[in-house]
Design brief:
about 50% strand, 4-stranded antiparallel β-sheet, mainly beta, 1 helix, about 80 residues, Immunoglobulin-like
Length: about 80
């Protein structure tokens, strides 16, 4: 998978830190979203959505992986 600069230029996640719903704005279709805890365990996964509910997650730092076509975008998020 490649990091595609045009995709990254129109890509945003908000709010961060997040309490309930994390929104993802992307110029291309999002195929899959995965959230991993700091130990690397997968804690949530969604298909074909541009948001994810994090209410059930404990407060802390998580890694967000967003798959769009053949591009993988990795971001750090903070759950309050």
């Amino acid at each position: 998978m490649d990091v595609d600069e045009p995709v990254l230029s129109g890509f945003t996640i908000f709010p961060n830190p997040v309490n309930k719903i994390l929104q993802i704005k992307s110029p291309v279709e999002i195929e899959k979203i995965e959230i991993f805890n700091i130990q690397g365990a997968l804690v949530d996964k969604k298909l074909n959505q541009n948001f994810i509910n994090v209410e059930k997650l404990k407060a802390g730092i998580y890694i967000l992986k967003i798959y769009t076509g053949n591009t993988l975008i990795v971001k750090k998020i903070i759950v309050n």
